[in-house]
Amino acid sequence: MPSGPGAFRSLSRLKLFLTEVTSMTNGAVTSVLLAKDGWLLLSLSNRDQLSAVAEGIMDMYAEYGEKLPLCERDLSAQDLEERKTGFVRVAVKVKETMVATADTTRRRKRATTYVPTCDEIDLLEDGNIAWTAEELSAIEGETFESCGYVLGGVSGFSEDQLDVLLDKAKEVWGEPSQMTPDELSQLGNIATRFTVVELGELNLTDIDTVYSLSQYGNWSSEQMSAAVIQYLQVSEKSLDELNSVDIAGLDKFICGLTADEITQLNSSAYGVSATSIGTLEVCNTDQLNAFKGHAVITYGPISSWQPEIFTEVGVVIAGFTANELSSLNTTSVAGITPLAISLIPPDTFGNGFTLDVLGAFDEAQALAVTSEQLAALSSSQSLVLIEAEYGEEQVPPEVIEDIQNIESTTPEGEPEDEPGEEPEGEPEKKPEKKPEKKPNGAIKNYQRFQFILISMAVCHLL
To answer: Carries keyword rRNA-binding (predicted)?
Structure first.
């Protein structure tokens, strides 16, 4: 807690600054401005004041982190990068201030490289990305033993930082084959730096540990394959012997199986764990198509599925063919999750959904459509989608006019003018098809406008 009037003046000053910054119309600008004013943190006169402010910032960032999935869906890559850059700058300022205000004894004892303490690691949370690889390497074994789980939960470390932390884990807990399930669970994102060989040596007898590991980081297909193979070996089970708990517990790692291997799974076990499979984002189209086979066995022909079944199978719909998508009606589409929509290959998306079905998209489904999928649509499909995106609100006339102008200049059928007047042997000049598929940036600009509004409303850094 802050002590003395000076601390409260600093906190009041910070709150005033944050109020001004959070009134900005662009969340990305907010984080950059906050980073520029890192001097405010440096102006704090003692460690208690720093801790109060730093902890407040990290708490607010933790709240933002809970909303991050929405931000990743609704913000452009540039905005996300600016947000990340802004937070890194703030975290660095907090770290530098902690180092500068460390007690004299610690500063006398420490070597050239600063040694982070457990208290500092606890305070920084996601801000631990501010430590250099050298500083992370200098962490004492006892500190890592007590606070390694905090570092494992940080999602923004570079590969170099993660490699150093994995080396520290090996120093403290031994080689990968010697690590206990509890220690593996504490590694979190750090575990993503295990090699394929090391993953094949892990003690994955506990399905809860396997599930915990699968939740972190970006695993490569080779790593996921190594993990699921190791689980099969230590559990002494074949693919068709995996039950619903196994399948749900493997989570992302189940996408380490090939499409042929997925077909060997027990369909009944799939049926019980279908909801879990339906949330996975890392399986490719062939793998999802293989899961579709189990879904058909479980729920019957696709034509008989009710909306709730589409919701339950989730992303498996991204494994549908264009013909299967075109067979859907406006009732069944209500159950398709936004995540499933975003994972459908662009060509399949453009060739599969009919105008009626696109028009039946709700706002969340329409917003889930990616720029690549938009580019695969005709202008008439784009117009129907933009109307679905606006919902009950009136689409601005300029947006409709923009799309209609493109449609009139790039007709989908034969042109109205007969090409007979063209010199024989000279091909008729037609407008390029690119504008037909991407309506003059109208949808893209509108989405960006919405993304900024959503950023202000629910994804604001502070």
So the answer is: no
The secondary structure of 256-269 as a DSSP string is GS-HHHHHTS-HHH
Do 36 and 436 meet the contact criterion of CB atoms below 8 Å apart?
no
Amino acid, single-letter form, for residue 24: M
The predicted-structure confidence for 16-62, as pLDDT tens digits, reads as follows 444 444 444 444 434 443 444 443 444 444 445 455 555 555 555 55
How far apart, in whole angstroms, are the C-alpha atoms of residue 127 and residue 135? 14
Q: Which two tokens stand for residue 339?
A: 């995540």
Residue pair 95/28 in contact by the 8 Å Cβ criterion: no
**67 near 458, Cβ under 8 Å?**
yes
DSSP string, 145-178: HHHHHHHHT-S---HHHHHHHHHHHHHHH-SGGG
Q: In a 3-state reduction of DSSP, which class is residue 371?
A: helix
Which one, of 452, 369, 454, 441, lies nearest residue 78 by Cα?
Answer: 452
Contact yes or no for 194/166 (Cβ under 8 A): yes
Greatest pairwise CA separation for the chain in angstroms? 92
Contacts of 233 (CB under 8 A, 6+ apart): none
Say which amino acid occupies 70: L
pLDDT tens column, 49-73 = 455 555 555 555 555 555 555 555 5
CA 240 to chain centre: 31
Q: Is 427 exposed, middle or buried (0-12, 13-18, 19+ CB in 10 A)?
A: exposed
- Could you give phi then psi for residue 416, rounded to 5 degrees? -65, -40
12-22 as b/e: b if 16+ CB within 10 A: eebeeebeebb
User: What residue type is 56 in one-letter code?
Assistant: G
The whole-angstrom separation of Cα 178 and Cα 99 is 35
